[in-house]
Amino acid sequence: MTAAATSSHFKENAHAALRDAPLQKALQHVRANFIDKRAKAAARLPEFEALRDSARDIKDHTLANLDLYIEAYEARVVEAGGQVHYAATAKDGVDLVLELCRERGAKAVTKGKSMISEEMGLNAALEAAGIEPIETDLGEYIIHLRGEAPSHIIAPAVHLNKEQIAEDFRRAHHDLPRDRDLSRPEQLLTEARGILREKFLSADIGITGANFLIAETGASIIVTNEGNGDLTQILPKVHIVIASLEKIVPTLEDASQLLRVLARSATGQDMSVYTTLSTGPRRAGDPDGPEEYHVILLDNGRSAMLGGEFEDMLRCIRCGACMNHCPVYHAVGGHAYGSVYPGPMGAVLTPSLIGVAEGGQLPNASTFCGRCEAVCPVRIPLPNMMRHWREREFERRLSPATMRYGIGFWAFFAKRPALYRLSTDVAMRALHWFGRGKGRFSSLPFAGGWTRYRDLPAPQGATFQSRWRAKSGRVA
Amino acid sequence: MPDAAGAPSRPPIRVGLFVTCLVDLIRPSVGFAAVKLLEDAGCTVFVPSQTCCGQPAYNSGDRATTRDIARQTIAAFEDCDYVVAPSGSCAGMLAKHYPELFVDEPELARKANAFSGKCFELISFLVDVLKVAKVSAHYDGEVAYHDSCSGLRELGVASQPRKLLGTVEGLRLVELNGADVCCGFGGTFAVKYGEISDAIVAQKTANVVASGAATLLAGDLGCLMNMAGKLQRQGSNVSVRHVAEVLSGVTDEPAIGAPQARGSRN
Q1: Which chain A residue's Cα is nearest to B182?
Q2: What does CATH list as the number for B11-127?
Q3: Low-confidence ranges of chain B (pLDDT < 50)
């Protein structure tokens, strides 16, 4: 029940995004803020690079023994009085949530920020079932008001400017005075807090995601900067954790190590403001907590990635550093990807979730600049994995015919050095002659894809190999 | 460490120049600049028959063609002590990606690994392997240096070009904001996603213009053609050159995309 993906229209989406002035203004902040903060946080911690190695190793070890850790995790959750439900697909996950809601007659559910909820298309399903979903993360709250999907995995409303948000608040919070001042971010935050306070108290069920699930203790961990997750999981009678399989880590110590790279990579904080552990329902003598505790473990294609070319992707801890550093993401923003997950991690994960025929544009839309891999806290070789998707496409003849013929034509020469040398020498001499006046071309047949946006330098004439041979007196 | 050119005791190092297809076809003067830098450092330079490193096929998912080209390249450079390319992207392909192509064939994998171990990007080869500490070249004016992605992130090329540029007489290196950010070239990306590539290179050229430098240098001709092409489309008169041209002092050819000076030779 994943929200309809428009990844196959990536080019059209990008075209619109490049002309969207407010979006382009908002994207300036991504470029300016995240990169510098991460760099400083990493520089402050001498062992940061070693921690990244350790983070990678912890995830690799877990993935290699995932079945065992899932069993252990479930046993601990049950011991603590909770229940674990398994969802093979996004639809199964939705059905489980709806069933829990219906059985308890829930009218309203509060929600902590969760990308798994987006993957399941949970809000739309809840609304269709007559249950009000209340997003409690400020960014999620804003985009829910707007009927939008997140454009970033940790900063869902990063595509918006504060003026747009003020407009949305005036539209949605019509009971409040029309002439109130909403020009500063704090005023927006205060208003949203006021609205949400009542909702927290009236919700029947609280749904959160999880950053980590700990096999050793059965605890789930969420990190937030607003504290909304705590209220979501403590106040209602029922707490439902929705998380994908690969969120499991063996021990609390492992989670602690991963937490040390998570916030630094994401926002440049040493730690997020709130790191909240929850283990089972309220115990006798606890001052607060839910009466019921459920975990929905979602597979949705992940177990099929184990042991294959894309297993490394399951190390991802959803910090967003890859998109924060991606020149393509900076240019077009997250919505252009038309998928739940944008940016480099989305370009690798999306074809696994919706198929390469539908999601194949995303791993192609990369310059392979490698900055994502350079900052990934768990060292996922993102460009290599995007290339693997391109190989799958090529094998299945899904890549565009013009591209395949172009490569075939070029390969014919590239595999025949003598022919290549002769033909390129003739061609470059001719091109040099045509371009000799200006030294470049502003348009050229068959090079329109290039010259539409930039000039093409004219060749200097005879090729290097031809000149070198003439100079060194060799023919062969 | 002194300039290696004057060290008679050292047997000449046999360097195979992988000139790269773009330099071969578009800008041979970069190839001759590379030859001069290598010879000045005491190397004997060979240019085996060659075409392309295979990246266009590799990055388009055509693994079979890539392997054919890789086998051909490995064989062509068998007799060389080192293989040096005036490009971080092509050198990265040879040094980091060729072995990945033959993981299932031990004999070819062994060859590919041996080959990869002797492949270097030109400027880092000069500094890191040959220990060249200075060049004898002159270039007037303020220069901005762009770090091409593959060289920077796959091969660690960053300090070496700056170090040698610092020894060019008359040259002043200025700060380029976002020097390590991709220029938007990305090989076939520049054409497949031309509009996005254009938006990315526009950021780059804005930074170049803001730096105030009269010349922009980088170590990869693909990126240079992209940035020069955009600067010229925008009407800028920043000169764009390969870093090897300036380091070797071979700058008599017009800058990339610039017209031939009237009356000069071809």
Answers
A1: A369
A2: 3.40.50
A3: 1-6, 264-266
